[in-house]
Amino acid sequence: MLSLFSRIGKLLITILVVGSCALISGEGVFAATSTVPVPVNVAGGDGHGIAAWSDGTVTGWGYNKYGQVGDGTSIHQFVPKRIDGLANIVQVAAARDISFALSKDGEVWAWGDGYSPYVSGDVVLQYQKRGLPVKMDGLEQVSNIDTNGFAGVAVHNDGTATLWYPTHDPTDPMTVTTKYVSLKGVSNASSAVILDYTVLILDCDGKVSSLSIYNTVYGRYRSENELPAVQPIRSSISTIVSSGRDAFLLNKNGTVSLWNEESKKTATISGFTGISNIQTGYKRLYALNSNGSIWQWNYNAGTKAKPFQVKSLSNIADIWGSTGQFGYALRKDGKLMAWGDGYYTGMATGSGSPTIDKGKETAYAVNVQTPLSWTVKGQSISFYGTSGIINGKLYVPFTSVFEALGVKISSKSELDPKQNGRSTSIKTFAYEDKTLVIKGGSPAEVLLNGKNTGQTVNIQVMSNTTMYPLETICEQLGISLQWNKTTGEVVLGGA
Asked: Which residues form the Copper amine oxidase-like N-terminal domain (predicted)?
């Protein structure tokens, strides 16, 4: 899980003093020296990711069944999308199928499972419309948040902490409200992480303590009056993170220790020295060495499993984790990377699958695609469906840019004698005096005004939607297309 003390490198952060502890402001050297926003905090769930940027905006991507991406749909998004309604965000938290964001004013926003209900009556998305992020009214003056995928914990500016979790109305199971419990006995806190049944608190002096928050006999979270005393664990700690019932402590001497919720025991992990930051994935520990290298320990792989270096990542300034089998890394040049060996939608590759030969190493890295913005004939537009970037080419769904461009599109199927009478798809794009036909599967033939161009393209299906090769279509129809891959700006049809 994420800690607000997850650093963006000594050269990248500006420190504010809030309450009794130093907290990251979300403004760094990148923000000051570049007009292009850079990520300041990132979090991942089981198959989605969320990023806060130096300009205060938030983007989301990946698996989206419960609205956890935050774009107001349940459509999986293979390229990051900017989330409406959020501003001045300095930290994000995610786990499983939910997401949260913390603003510099101490407000917390939530979306995803239990927070983003279906919205009926939408003309385009009758069954896939979801609610946008909602403000959590029971949390104020917050400096740090963490979640285990169901409940969450917030540290306040004054060093106190609050537990929150969703509850269902017994008379109406579809109605979900949020319960808030003040964690008595917690003071001077700088950050906290929530395990299955326990909250670990790191205070401003580097001391870690535990607090049991769950009554296993009654199967529910404790009320404020039922909370036991806070129990000290260890001192001289700089960062705490968690995964399931395990917590990891980064000692100030650069070593790492493991604390288990069930055994209540702490043990030093061999193989980690000179570590400047730690994060977790599902049964994985990620560690950033002070030399900019990343090390990973798949600690569920048996007693012989040892930490190994993720060789495709170097010159790293900061790292973040997920509850899936992937993590995120910020290179010192400001580029956001993802690496992993599992659910690729959370890695924002653009296509949902990796582009690197996974046989070369146990974990491998890809570039997180830059969010796209769309301008068509001088007007800014947006669309519900995902866009795609496959082999460096732009792909878009039917309900995207074509109507705004004035392109008429149609689809039909016919029997193809070349394919032994099997049905083949025919897509037609008509623009001014030109008619483009994309015929067949993968690869498909491209015909312009009835003549074969000799060009072939691959039609893709993403998020259960047919995706069209935008650059090929624009080129054949004579429509201008400019794509700034650094900023993500796509300009179609001129001004």
From this structure: 376-491
Q: CATH number for the domain including 357?
A: 2.130.10.30
Say if residues 42 and 51 touch (Cβ distance below 8 Å): yes
What dihedral angle (degrees, nearest 10) is formed by the CA atoms of 51, 53, 57, 61?
A: -30
* CA separation for the pair 480, 495 (Å, rounded): 10
Residues 377 and 349 in one domain: no
- Which whole number is the average pLDDT over 31-46? 82
CB 346 within 8 A of CB 322: yes
Euclidean distance between CA atoms 44 and 412, whole angstroms: 40
Give the distance between the most distant pair of CA atoms in the chain: 79
Q: Confidence class of residue 170 from pLDDT cuts 50, 70 and 90?
A: confident
Domain boundary among 306, 337, 367: 367
CB atoms within 10 A of CB 169: 10
Question: Can you give the pTM of this predicted structure?
Answer: 0.91
Asked if residue 115 and residue 65 are part of one domain, the reply reads yes
Q: Are residues 477 and 355 in the same domain?
A: no
> What average pLDDT does range 297-307 have in this prediction?
82
In this structure, what DSSP letter does residue 378 have? T
Percent with pLDDT over 90 in the chain: 76
